[in-house]
Design a protein that fits this description.
Length: 505
Protein backbone atom coordinates (compact mmCIF):
# COMPACT_ATOMS: atom_id res chain seq x y z
CA UNK A 1 0.00 0.00 0.00
CA UNK A 2 1.54 3.30 -1.12
CA UNK A 3 0.77 6.32 1.06
CA UNK A 4 0.65 9.40 -1.18
CA UNK A 5 0.16 12.16 1.41
CA UNK A 6 -3.15 14.01 1.56
CA UNK A 7 -2.04 17.64 1.60
CA UNK A 8 0.43 17.46 -1.27
CA UNK A 9 -1.93 15.39 -3.40
CA UNK A 10 -4.76 17.86 -2.79
CA UNK A 11 -2.56 20.80 -3.88
CA UNK A 12 -1.44 18.93 -7.01
CA UNK A 13 -4.99 18.06 -8.04
CA UNK A 14 -6.19 21.62 -7.49
CA UNK A 15 -3.49 22.80 -9.91
CA UNK A 16 -3.82 20.01 -12.47
CA UNK A 17 -7.62 19.54 -12.49
CA UNK A 18 -9.03 22.76 -10.99
CA UNK A 19 -12.56 22.25 -12.33
CA UNK A 20 -12.91 18.69 -11.04
CA UNK A 21 -15.89 18.38 -8.66
CA UNK A 22 -15.13 17.81 -4.99
CA UNK A 23 -18.56 18.17 -3.38
CA UNK A 24 -22.12 19.28 -3.95
CA UNK A 25 -23.09 21.61 -1.09
CA UNK A 26 -26.05 23.77 -0.12
CA UNK A 27 -24.34 26.55 -2.06
CA UNK A 28 -23.79 24.54 -5.21
CA UNK A 29 -20.86 22.68 -6.75
CA UNK A 30 -17.49 22.97 -5.02
CA UNK A 31 -14.47 22.28 -7.24
CA UNK A 32 -10.96 21.29 -6.23
CA UNK A 33 -9.71 24.78 -7.04
CA UNK A 34 -12.51 26.35 -4.98
CA UNK A 35 -11.91 24.24 -1.90
CA UNK A 36 -8.12 24.53 -2.11
CA UNK A 37 -8.29 28.34 -2.21
CA UNK A 38 -10.83 28.35 0.64
CA UNK A 39 -8.56 26.06 2.69
CA UNK A 40 -5.76 28.59 2.17
CA UNK A 41 -8.07 31.33 3.50
CA UNK A 42 -8.79 29.30 6.62
CA UNK A 43 -5.10 28.51 7.17
CA UNK A 44 -4.27 32.23 7.05
CA UNK A 45 -7.13 33.01 9.47
CA UNK A 46 -5.87 30.43 11.94
CA UNK A 47 -2.36 31.81 11.68
CA UNK A 48 -3.67 35.34 12.25
CA UNK A 49 -5.42 34.05 15.40
CA UNK A 50 -2.06 32.88 16.73
CA UNK A 51 -2.18 29.18 15.81
CA UNK A 52 0.98 27.47 14.64
CA UNK A 53 1.89 24.04 13.19
CA UNK A 54 1.31 21.33 15.79
CA UNK A 55 -1.25 23.38 17.72
CA UNK A 56 -4.53 21.65 18.54
CA UNK A 57 -7.60 23.39 17.11
CA UNK A 58 -10.87 22.36 18.76
CA UNK A 59 -13.64 22.60 16.17
CA UNK A 60 -17.31 22.63 17.19
CA UNK A 61 -19.15 23.14 13.92
CA UNK A 62 -21.96 21.40 12.10
CA UNK A 63 -21.35 20.18 8.57
CA UNK A 64 -21.12 23.18 6.26
CA UNK A 65 -18.98 24.55 3.41
CA UNK A 66 -17.09 26.68 5.93
CA UNK A 67 -16.41 23.67 8.16
CA UNK A 68 -15.14 21.67 5.19
CA UNK A 69 -12.74 24.45 4.20
CA UNK A 70 -11.63 24.84 7.83
CA UNK A 71 -10.72 21.17 8.23
CA UNK A 72 -8.65 21.19 5.05
CA UNK A 73 -7.03 24.46 6.15
CA UNK A 74 -6.03 22.93 9.48
CA UNK A 75 -4.55 19.85 7.79
CA UNK A 76 -2.72 21.97 5.21
CA UNK A 77 -1.21 24.19 7.89
CA UNK A 78 0.14 21.20 9.83
CA UNK A 79 -2.11 21.92 12.80
CA UNK A 80 -4.10 19.25 14.64
CA UNK A 81 -7.83 19.06 14.00
CA UNK A 82 -9.84 18.22 17.14
CA UNK A 83 -13.47 17.71 16.06
CA UNK A 84 -16.07 17.80 18.83
CA UNK A 85 -19.83 17.45 18.79
CA UNK A 86 -21.33 20.98 18.80
CA UNK A 87 -24.12 19.64 21.02
CA UNK A 88 -21.71 18.98 23.93
CA UNK A 89 -22.42 20.90 27.13
CA UNK A 90 -21.41 20.97 30.79
CA UNK A 91 -18.89 18.54 32.23
CA UNK A 92 -18.56 16.56 29.00
CA UNK A 93 -17.61 19.72 27.11
CA UNK A 94 -15.23 20.87 29.84
CA UNK A 95 -13.54 17.45 29.74
CA UNK A 96 -13.21 17.59 25.93
CA UNK A 97 -11.59 21.03 26.10
CA UNK A 98 -9.15 20.27 28.91
CA UNK A 99 -8.17 16.80 27.65
CA UNK A 100 -6.58 17.95 24.38
CA UNK A 101 -4.89 21.16 25.61
CA UNK A 102 -6.23 23.14 22.66
CA UNK A 103 -4.82 26.52 21.74
CA UNK A 104 -7.93 27.74 19.93
CA UNK A 105 -11.64 26.92 19.64
CA UNK A 106 -13.41 27.47 16.32
CA UNK A 107 -17.16 27.19 16.65
CA UNK A 108 -20.58 28.07 15.30
CA UNK A 109 -22.21 31.10 16.94
CA UNK A 110 -24.86 29.06 18.77
CA UNK A 111 -22.18 27.03 20.57
CA UNK A 112 -20.56 30.02 22.31
CA UNK A 113 -22.91 30.05 25.31
CA UNK A 114 -22.19 26.37 26.11
CA UNK A 115 -18.44 27.00 25.91
CA UNK A 116 -18.73 30.01 28.20
CA UNK A 117 -20.96 28.13 30.66
CA UNK A 118 -18.42 25.31 31.11
CA UNK A 119 -15.54 27.74 31.58
CA UNK A 120 -13.85 27.02 28.27
CA UNK A 121 -13.88 30.65 27.17
CA UNK A 122 -11.79 31.60 30.21
CA UNK A 123 -8.93 29.30 29.20
CA UNK A 124 -8.36 29.82 25.49
CA UNK A 125 -9.24 31.99 22.53
CA UNK A 126 -12.28 31.49 20.34
CA UNK A 127 -12.84 32.11 16.66
CA UNK A 128 -16.59 32.30 16.08
CA UNK A 129 -17.95 31.40 12.65
CA UNK A 130 -20.99 33.60 12.13
CA UNK A 131 -21.16 32.63 8.47
CA UNK A 132 -21.09 28.91 7.62
CA UNK A 133 -21.05 29.53 3.87
CA UNK A 134 -17.85 28.96 1.93
CA UNK A 135 -15.19 31.57 2.79
CA UNK A 136 -13.77 33.78 0.04
CA UNK A 137 -10.80 32.18 -1.75
CA UNK A 138 -7.38 33.37 -0.74
CA UNK A 139 -5.60 35.39 -3.48
CA UNK A 140 -2.36 33.58 -2.64
CA UNK A 141 -1.49 30.05 -1.65
CA UNK A 142 -0.61 29.07 1.89
CA UNK A 143 3.04 28.03 1.99
CA UNK A 144 3.52 26.27 5.29
CA UNK A 145 5.57 23.17 6.07
CA UNK A 146 4.19 20.02 4.44
CA UNK A 147 2.95 17.55 7.06
CA UNK A 148 4.56 14.11 7.13
CA UNK A 149 2.11 11.18 6.74
CA UNK A 150 3.04 10.00 10.24
CA UNK A 151 2.34 13.43 11.79
CA UNK A 152 -0.78 13.75 13.94
CA UNK A 153 -3.65 15.06 11.80
CA UNK A 154 -6.47 14.84 14.34
CA UNK A 155 -7.43 13.96 17.89
CA UNK A 156 -10.75 12.17 17.70
CA UNK A 157 -12.77 11.45 20.82
CA UNK A 158 -13.80 7.90 21.63
CA UNK A 159 -17.40 7.13 22.41
CA UNK A 160 -17.07 7.20 26.17
CA UNK A 161 -19.98 4.81 26.72
CA UNK A 162 -18.68 3.60 30.09
CA UNK A 163 -16.69 6.65 31.22
CA UNK A 164 -15.02 9.85 30.05
CA UNK A 165 -13.97 9.85 26.41
CA UNK A 166 -10.35 9.44 25.30
CA UNK A 167 -8.65 11.24 22.41
CA UNK A 168 -7.35 8.96 19.67
CA UNK A 169 -4.22 10.26 17.94
CA UNK A 170 -5.01 9.95 14.22
CA UNK A 171 -2.19 10.51 11.74
CA UNK A 172 -2.42 11.82 8.17
CA UNK A 173 -1.64 8.28 7.05
CA UNK A 174 -4.52 6.88 9.11
CA UNK A 175 -6.96 9.35 7.54
CA UNK A 176 -5.73 8.29 4.12
CA UNK A 177 -6.14 4.60 4.97
CA UNK A 178 -9.61 5.25 6.36
CA UNK A 179 -10.65 6.77 3.03
CA UNK A 180 -9.04 3.94 1.07
CA UNK A 181 -10.92 1.40 3.18
CA UNK A 182 -14.22 3.00 2.16
CA UNK A 183 -13.25 2.73 -1.51
CA UNK A 184 -12.42 -0.95 -0.97
CA UNK A 185 -15.55 -1.82 0.98
CA UNK A 186 -17.94 0.15 -1.24
CA UNK A 187 -16.32 -0.89 -4.56
CA UNK A 188 -16.12 2.72 -5.71
CA UNK A 189 -15.93 3.53 -9.40
CA UNK A 190 -14.92 6.70 -11.22
CA UNK A 191 -17.75 9.21 -11.12
CA UNK A 192 -19.51 7.78 -8.08
CA UNK A 193 -21.29 10.20 -5.74
CA UNK A 194 -21.43 9.49 -2.00
CA UNK A 195 -24.31 10.88 0.06
CA UNK A 196 -22.66 12.32 3.17
CA UNK A 197 -24.86 13.02 6.17
CA UNK A 198 -22.33 11.86 8.78
CA UNK A 199 -20.97 14.61 11.05
CA UNK A 200 -17.35 15.55 10.46
CA UNK A 201 -16.53 14.87 14.12
CA UNK A 202 -17.23 11.15 13.62
CA UNK A 203 -14.67 8.95 11.83
CA UNK A 204 -17.45 8.02 9.40
CA UNK A 205 -17.52 11.64 8.27
CA UNK A 206 -13.82 12.38 8.66
CA UNK A 207 -12.82 9.63 6.26
CA UNK A 208 -15.18 10.90 3.57
CA UNK A 209 -14.04 14.51 3.48
CA UNK A 210 -10.63 13.40 2.18
CA UNK A 211 -11.93 10.64 -0.10
CA UNK A 212 -12.14 12.70 -3.36
CA UNK A 213 -8.41 13.43 -3.00
CA UNK A 214 -7.66 9.73 -3.43
CA UNK A 215 -10.43 8.58 -5.78
CA UNK A 216 -12.27 10.28 -8.63
CA UNK A 217 -15.57 10.52 -6.77
CA UNK A 218 -17.77 13.34 -5.50
CA UNK A 219 -19.51 14.00 -2.18
CA UNK A 220 -23.04 15.27 -1.65
CA UNK A 221 -22.75 17.13 1.64
CA UNK A 222 -25.63 17.44 4.10
CA UNK A 223 -25.67 18.81 7.65
CA UNK A 224 -27.78 16.07 9.22
CA UNK A 225 -29.61 12.77 8.74
CA UNK A 226 -33.32 13.05 7.93
CA UNK A 227 -35.22 9.76 7.74
CA UNK A 228 -38.37 11.26 6.18
CA UNK A 229 -36.51 13.13 3.42
CA UNK A 230 -33.67 10.64 2.96
CA UNK A 231 -34.56 8.71 -0.21
CA UNK A 232 -36.05 11.69 -2.03
CA UNK A 233 -32.89 13.72 -1.40
CA UNK A 234 -30.63 10.80 -2.34
CA UNK A 235 -32.60 10.30 -5.54
CA UNK A 236 -32.59 13.93 -6.63
CA UNK A 237 -28.87 14.16 -5.84
CA UNK A 238 -28.14 11.15 -8.09
CA UNK A 239 -26.01 9.53 -5.39
CA UNK A 240 -24.63 6.03 -5.86
CA UNK A 241 -23.62 5.17 -2.27
CA UNK A 242 -24.98 5.67 1.21
CA UNK A 243 -23.51 5.01 4.64
CA UNK A 244 -25.32 3.38 7.57
CA UNK A 245 -24.42 3.50 11.25
CA UNK A 246 -26.14 1.99 14.26
CA UNK A 247 -29.89 1.94 13.76
CA UNK A 248 -30.03 3.84 10.45
CA UNK A 249 -31.07 0.72 8.51
CA UNK A 250 -33.87 -0.02 10.95
CA UNK A 251 -34.98 3.62 11.02
CA UNK A 252 -35.29 3.73 7.24
CA UNK A 253 -37.23 0.47 7.23
CA UNK A 254 -39.72 1.96 9.67
CA UNK A 255 -40.53 4.83 7.31
CA UNK A 256 -43.82 4.49 5.39
CA UNK A 257 -43.48 3.16 1.83
CA UNK A 258 -42.72 5.87 -0.69
CA UNK A 259 -42.29 6.32 -4.43
CA UNK A 260 -38.66 7.16 -3.66
CA UNK A 261 -37.89 3.73 -2.14
CA UNK A 262 -36.67 2.48 -5.53
CA UNK A 263 -36.43 5.72 -7.47
CA UNK A 264 -32.71 6.27 -6.95
CA UNK A 265 -29.27 5.30 -8.27
CA UNK A 266 -27.80 3.84 -5.09
CA UNK A 267 -25.93 0.57 -5.60
CA UNK A 268 -24.33 -0.02 -2.21
CA UNK A 269 -25.01 0.85 1.42
CA UNK A 270 -21.86 0.33 3.49
CA UNK A 271 -21.43 0.68 7.23
CA UNK A 272 -21.89 -1.06 10.56
CA UNK A 273 -24.56 -1.97 13.06
CA UNK A 274 -27.21 -3.55 10.83
CA UNK A 275 -29.37 -6.10 12.62
CA UNK A 276 -29.21 -9.45 10.78
CA UNK A 277 -33.02 -9.55 10.64
CA UNK A 278 -33.13 -6.18 8.88
CA UNK A 279 -30.48 -7.06 6.27
CA UNK A 280 -32.51 -8.82 3.58
CA UNK A 281 -35.68 -6.74 4.11
CA UNK A 282 -33.61 -3.59 3.53
CA UNK A 283 -32.07 -4.95 0.35
CA UNK A 284 -35.44 -6.18 -0.95
CA UNK A 285 -37.32 -2.96 -0.24
CA UNK A 286 -34.76 -0.44 -1.44
CA UNK A 287 -32.91 -2.47 -4.08
CA UNK A 288 -29.53 -1.74 -2.51
CA UNK A 289 -26.69 -4.14 -1.74
CA UNK A 290 -25.77 -3.92 1.94
CA UNK A 291 -22.13 -4.28 2.98
CA UNK A 292 -21.42 -4.59 6.67
CA UNK A 293 -17.98 -3.77 8.03
CA UNK A 294 -16.20 -3.53 11.38
CA UNK A 295 -13.60 -1.15 12.67
CA UNK A 296 -12.48 1.49 15.12
CA UNK A 297 -10.93 4.94 14.86
CA UNK A 298 -7.82 3.48 16.51
CA UNK A 299 -7.20 1.22 13.49
CA UNK A 300 -7.80 3.66 10.62
CA UNK A 301 -11.57 3.18 10.77
CA UNK A 302 -12.30 -0.08 8.91
CA UNK A 303 -10.65 -3.39 9.79
CA UNK A 304 -12.93 -5.93 8.10
CA UNK A 305 -15.51 -5.77 5.33
CA UNK A 306 -18.18 -8.19 4.14
CA UNK A 307 -18.35 -8.02 0.34
CA UNK A 308 -19.83 -11.52 0.07
CA UNK A 309 -23.31 -10.78 1.39
CA UNK A 310 -23.17 -13.24 4.32
CA UNK A 311 -25.94 -12.00 6.61
CA UNK A 312 -24.81 -11.13 10.13
CA UNK A 313 -21.07 -11.19 9.35
CA UNK A 314 -18.72 -8.20 9.35
CA UNK A 315 -16.42 -9.88 6.86
CA UNK A 316 -12.75 -10.54 6.35
CA UNK A 317 -9.75 -8.32 7.16
CA UNK A 318 -8.72 -5.57 4.78
CA UNK A 319 -5.46 -6.34 2.93
CA UNK A 320 -3.24 -4.45 5.38
CA UNK A 321 -4.69 -6.00 8.56
CA UNK A 322 -4.67 -9.37 10.30
CA UNK A 323 -7.25 -10.22 12.94
CA UNK A 324 -7.34 -12.74 15.75
CA UNK A 325 -10.03 -13.60 18.27
CA UNK A 326 -8.49 -14.44 21.65
CA UNK A 327 -9.84 -15.96 24.84
CA UNK A 328 -9.16 -14.57 28.33
CA UNK A 329 -5.86 -16.47 28.47
CA UNK A 330 -4.71 -14.83 25.25
CA UNK A 331 -5.07 -17.99 23.16
CA UNK A 332 -6.43 -17.63 19.59
CA UNK A 333 -9.87 -19.07 18.92
CA UNK A 334 -10.55 -20.67 15.56
CA UNK A 335 -13.78 -20.99 13.56
CA UNK A 336 -16.64 -22.31 15.63
CA UNK A 337 -14.56 -22.19 18.85
CA UNK A 338 -16.49 -19.48 20.68
CA UNK A 339 -16.19 -15.79 21.41
CA UNK A 340 -13.24 -13.73 22.49
CA UNK A 341 -11.64 -10.33 22.16
CA UNK A 342 -10.84 -9.00 18.69
CA UNK A 343 -7.10 -8.26 18.38
CA UNK A 344 -5.78 -6.43 15.30
CA UNK A 345 -2.30 -6.40 13.76
CA UNK A 346 -0.85 -4.91 10.60
CA UNK A 347 2.11 -5.29 8.25
CA UNK A 348 1.79 -1.61 7.31
CA UNK A 349 3.57 0.53 9.93
CA UNK A 350 1.35 3.36 11.08
CA UNK A 351 -1.99 1.75 10.21
CA UNK A 352 -2.76 1.42 13.95
CA UNK A 353 -2.83 4.51 16.13
CA UNK A 354 0.22 5.53 18.22
CA UNK A 355 -1.87 5.95 21.38
CA UNK A 356 -4.39 8.06 23.27
CA UNK A 357 -3.40 11.67 23.83
CA UNK A 358 -2.25 12.30 27.41
CA UNK A 359 -3.36 8.84 28.55
CA UNK A 360 -0.43 6.45 28.83
CA UNK A 361 -2.39 3.95 30.95
CA UNK A 362 -5.17 3.53 28.38
CA UNK A 363 -2.61 3.39 25.56
CA UNK A 364 -0.68 0.59 27.26
CA UNK A 365 -3.88 -1.38 27.86
CA UNK A 366 -4.88 -1.19 24.19
CA UNK A 367 -1.48 -1.42 22.47
CA UNK A 368 0.21 -4.63 23.61
CA UNK A 369 2.99 -6.82 22.29
CA UNK A 370 0.51 -9.09 20.51
CA UNK A 371 -1.44 -6.28 18.82
CA UNK A 372 -4.21 -3.74 19.31
CA UNK A 373 -6.75 -5.04 21.82
CA UNK A 374 -10.04 -3.56 20.65
CA UNK A 375 -12.19 -4.36 23.67
CA UNK A 376 -14.77 -5.83 21.28
CA UNK A 377 -16.10 -9.38 21.24
CA UNK A 378 -15.99 -11.43 18.09
CA UNK A 379 -16.01 -14.95 16.76
CA UNK A 380 -15.17 -16.74 13.52
CA UNK A 381 -17.85 -18.66 11.68
CA UNK A 382 -17.09 -21.85 9.78
CA UNK A 383 -16.42 -19.92 6.55
CA UNK A 384 -13.77 -17.70 8.16
CA UNK A 385 -15.98 -14.63 8.41
CA UNK A 386 -15.79 -12.45 11.51
CA UNK A 387 -18.91 -11.98 13.63
CA UNK A 388 -19.26 -9.01 16.01
CA UNK A 389 -20.89 -9.47 19.44
CA UNK A 390 -20.54 -6.07 21.13
CA UNK A 391 -18.12 -4.72 23.71
CA UNK A 392 -16.25 -7.12 25.98
CA UNK A 393 -17.56 -5.32 29.06
CA UNK A 394 -21.09 -4.96 27.69
CA UNK A 395 -22.36 -8.42 28.59
CA UNK A 396 -23.72 -9.90 31.80
CA UNK A 397 -24.09 -13.33 33.33
CA UNK A 398 -27.73 -14.43 33.59
CA UNK A 399 -28.68 -17.88 34.86
CA UNK A 400 -25.29 -19.30 33.94
CA UNK A 401 -25.27 -17.79 30.45
CA UNK A 402 -23.41 -14.81 29.04
CA UNK A 403 -25.86 -12.33 27.53
CA UNK A 404 -24.59 -9.76 25.03
CA UNK A 405 -26.29 -6.37 25.23
CA UNK A 406 -25.72 -5.93 21.51
CA UNK A 407 -27.81 -9.00 20.69
CA UNK A 408 -30.70 -8.10 22.99
CA UNK A 409 -30.78 -4.47 21.86
CA UNK A 410 -30.69 -5.36 18.17
CA UNK A 411 -33.86 -7.41 18.66
CA UNK A 412 -35.62 -4.81 20.82
CA UNK A 413 -34.89 -2.09 18.27
CA UNK A 414 -36.92 -4.01 15.68
CA UNK A 415 -40.14 -3.51 17.65
CA UNK A 416 -42.42 -1.15 15.69
CA UNK A 417 -42.66 1.36 18.57
CA UNK A 418 -39.06 1.24 19.83
CA UNK A 419 -36.68 3.90 18.54
CA UNK A 420 -33.65 2.66 20.49
CA UNK A 421 -32.81 0.63 23.57
CA UNK A 422 -30.08 -0.06 26.11
CA UNK A 423 -29.56 -3.20 28.18
CA UNK A 424 -27.86 -3.13 31.58
CA UNK A 425 -27.45 -5.66 34.34
CA UNK A 426 -28.93 -5.34 37.83
CA UNK A 427 -28.00 -7.64 40.72
CA UNK A 428 -30.20 -10.74 40.84
CA UNK A 429 -31.88 -12.13 43.92
CA UNK A 430 -29.71 -15.24 44.00
CA UNK A 431 -26.47 -14.02 42.50
CA UNK A 432 -25.45 -13.08 38.98
CA UNK A 433 -27.67 -10.54 37.21
CA UNK A 434 -31.11 -9.80 35.84
CA UNK A 435 -31.68 -7.75 32.70
CA UNK A 436 -33.01 -4.20 32.77
CA UNK A 437 -33.94 -2.88 29.34
CA UNK A 438 -34.35 0.86 28.78
CA UNK A 439 -36.42 1.75 25.72
CA UNK A 440 -37.16 5.05 23.98
CA UNK A 441 -40.41 5.14 21.99
CA UNK A 442 -40.63 6.34 18.42
CA UNK A 443 -42.13 9.82 18.04
CA UNK A 444 -45.87 9.62 18.70
CA UNK A 445 -45.68 5.94 19.69
CA UNK A 446 -46.59 4.32 22.99
CA UNK A 447 -44.81 1.33 24.50
CA UNK A 448 -46.62 -0.99 26.88
CA UNK A 449 -43.95 -2.94 28.77
CA UNK A 450 -46.10 -6.05 29.14
CA UNK A 451 -46.77 -6.17 25.40
CA UNK A 452 -43.10 -5.50 24.60
CA UNK A 453 -42.08 -8.27 26.99
CA UNK A 454 -44.41 -10.73 25.24
CA UNK A 455 -43.08 -9.64 21.84
CA UNK A 456 -39.48 -10.16 22.98
CA UNK A 457 -40.30 -13.55 24.46
CA UNK A 458 -41.01 -14.83 20.94
CA UNK A 459 -37.62 -13.65 19.69
CA UNK A 460 -35.17 -14.14 22.57
CA UNK A 461 -33.98 -17.14 24.52
CA UNK A 462 -35.34 -17.34 28.08
CA UNK A 463 -32.07 -16.18 29.64
CA UNK A 464 -31.95 -13.18 27.23
CA UNK A 465 -35.37 -11.82 28.18
CA UNK A 466 -35.46 -8.66 30.33
CA UNK A 467 -36.93 -8.97 33.79
CA UNK A 468 -37.26 -5.18 34.02
CA UNK A 469 -38.30 -2.62 31.38
CA UNK A 470 -38.09 1.15 31.78
CA UNK A 471 -39.29 3.77 29.28
CA UNK A 472 -37.05 6.78 28.83
CA UNK A 473 -37.67 10.04 26.98
CA UNK A 474 -34.07 10.62 25.89
CA UNK A 475 -30.83 8.70 26.25
CA UNK A 476 -27.61 10.38 27.36
CA UNK A 477 -25.35 10.24 24.31
CA UNK A 478 -21.70 10.44 23.39
CA UNK A 479 -20.43 12.73 20.59
CA UNK A 480 -20.80 9.79 18.19
CA UNK A 481 -24.39 9.26 19.33
CA UNK A 482 -23.78 6.11 21.34
CA UNK A 483 -25.72 5.64 24.56
CA UNK A 484 -23.78 6.37 27.75
CA UNK A 485 -24.96 3.52 29.94
CA UNK A 486 -23.06 4.71 33.00
CA UNK A 487 -25.33 7.80 33.04
CA UNK A 488 -28.62 5.89 32.97
CA UNK A 489 -30.70 6.11 36.17
CA UNK A 490 -29.76 3.54 38.79
CA UNK A 491 -33.29 3.46 40.17
CA UNK A 492 -35.67 4.47 37.35
CA UNK A 493 -39.07 5.70 38.48
CA UNK A 494 -40.79 4.11 35.50
CA UNK A 495 -39.92 0.47 36.12
CA UNK A 496 -41.96 -2.50 34.98
CA UNK A 497 -41.13 -5.99 36.28
CA UNK A 498 -41.88 -9.32 34.70
CA UNK A 499 -43.23 -11.41 37.57
CA UNK A 500 -41.92 -14.92 37.36
CA UNK A 501 -44.40 -17.72 37.81
CA UNK A 502 -43.80 -19.69 40.99
CA UNK A 503 -42.62 -23.21 40.41
CA UNK A 504 -44.82 -25.94 41.83
CA UNK A 505 -43.07 -28.32 44.18
Amino acid sequence: MQIVGLTNTFRDLARETPARPFAHTSQGLLTFADLSAQADTMAFRLEAAGARPGDRILVMMRNSPAALALVHGILRAGMVWVPANPALVGDALAHAISLVEASLIVCDRDVVSAIEACGGANRLAMMVMDDTSAPPPSPRGYEGPTPNPRDIAALMYTSGTTGPSKAVMVTHQMLELAARSVAYCASLETGDDLYMWEPFYHIGGAQLIVLPILHDVTLTLRDRFSASAFWEDVSKSRCTHIHHLGGIVQILLKQPPSEWDRKHDVRIAWGGGCSPDAWRPFEARFGVELRECYGMTEASSLTTCNVEGVVGAVGRPLPWFTVEVKDEAGEPLGPGKGRGEIVVNTDLPGAIFPGYYNNAEASAKALRSDGFHTGDMGSWDETGMLRFHGRVGDSIRVRGENVSAYEVESVANRHPSVSESAMVGVPGEIGEYDILLFVRPDAGAEIRPDELSAWLAERLAPYQRPRFISRIAEFPKTPSQRIQKHRLPKHPADLWEQRRAKQKP
